[in-house]
Specification:
Blueprint lengths: L1 H15 L10 H8 L1 H18 L3 H21 L4 H21 L7 H49 L2 H24 L28 H33 L6 H31 L30 H6 L2 H12 L1
Helix pairs in contact: 1-4, 2-5, 7-8
């Protein structure tokens, strides 16, 4: 605080044109002002102060009055604080000298300090940054090696008899899928080549299966997916343009709203049917009584049949015409 006040007083004294006060003659203040960094900072602050002071006449009058008051107060208090300031000045000068010996960079120019600090930071951070880059390079190399190994394994697998069958199956499936696309989603505007003829599917730039089976498979599937996507969107755009040409304006918002309503109706109907099925399965079914075996009583000579609905053999014989015709004969005898 003492050094800052001394520097401010010195600057104000130079501004008003008076002789430096006793505070500005302190050794500590002179040593601090001799540092290039502090000198440059004081120069910047002095330039800013002068610019602000000269911006307006009212500011110039106010600041000049403040400078005169501070100078008068310092000059009045100087005889009373001379002894304590001398003792403090000696200690501060010793501290500044010790700082200059331990940190010699404080006596260098600001540009030198900035460059030295930059180099020190780079030297401190560079090992860690280099470790990160080395780890990243090693990871990329490992991934690349793993990719090459996986690719080689895939090629070796596709080179076997079963792999060749699978490869031929993929090619045949791709050709059949292209035929279906040509039939149901024909190209709206075929892209001609340099000769003016449309490019067929077989002339696409795909690696031969003998050279790289894995790459051939990937390119075949990718080509089929790209062609299918282009066909779908091209046909959809052509239909929309056709409807617009015929005066039918397709409202996408209404179409999406109707589609969502249909999906919601289907969901609600499905849930209702599921609830009805669950209710039917939860209802108890009527239990059928198990058939009990009929016990046939043992025939006895003294008991007659108890069931009137089931006639015996004798009753059946008596009811026949032959039995009736023989009764009188028996009675005559």
């Amino acid at each position: 605080m003492v050094l800052a006040a001394a520097c401010a007083l010195d600057m104000m004294a130079m501004e008003v044109g008076t002789s430096p006060t006793a505070l500005s003659q302190l050794q500590s203040v002179q040593k601090v002002m001799a540092m290039p960094t502090v000198g440059a900072a004081m120069g910047q602050v002095g330039a800013f102060y002068t610019k602000v002071k000269g911006a307006h006449s009212l500011l110039e009058w106010a600041l000049s009055t403040a400078e005169a008051s501070v100078s008068l107060a310092a000059a009045t208090a100087a005889p009373y604080v001379a002894s304590p300031l001398a003792a403090g000045d000696a200690k501060m000068a010793a501290v500044i000298d010790e700082l200059g010996r331990r940190v010699p960079i404080v006596n260098e120019q600001p540009k030198v300090i900035v460059e030295t600090t930059k180099q020190a930071v780079i030297a401190k951070i560079s090992p860690h940054v280099n470790k990160v880059f080395v780890a990243r390079a090693a990871a990329e190399q490992r991934v690349h090696s793993l990719k090459e190994l996986s690719w080689a394994k895939a090629n070796a697998l596709l080179s076997t008899a079963y792999g060749q069958r699978a490869l031929h199956g993929v090619d045949a499936g791709a050709c059949y899928a292209m035929k279906l696309l040509d039939q149901y989603l024909p190209p709206v505007e075929p892209q001609p080549d340099h000769t003016g003829q449309s490019l067929p599917y077989t002339t696409c730039d795909i690696v031969e299966a003998e050279r790289d089976p894995a790459l051939h498979t990937v390119q075949t599937v990718g080509r089929l997916s790209a062609v299918a996507a282009r066909r779908v969107w091209a046909n959809l755009a052509a239909r929309v343009n056709h409807l617009r040409a015929n005066g039918v304006e397709l409202d996408v918002r209404r179409y999406i709203t109707a589609l969502l309503a249909a999906v919601h109706l289907a969901t609600v109907t499905s849930e209702q049917q599921q609830q009805e099925r669950d209710t039917d399965t939860e209802q108890p079914r009527p239990a059928h009584p198990a058939p009990t075996p009929h016990a046939h009583p043992a025939p006895t000579s003294h008991t007659a049949p108890t069931s009137p609905t089931s006639p015996t053999t004798a009753t059946k014989l008596k009811s026949t015409p032959e039995a009736k015709s023989t009764k009188p004969e028996d009675s005559e005898q």
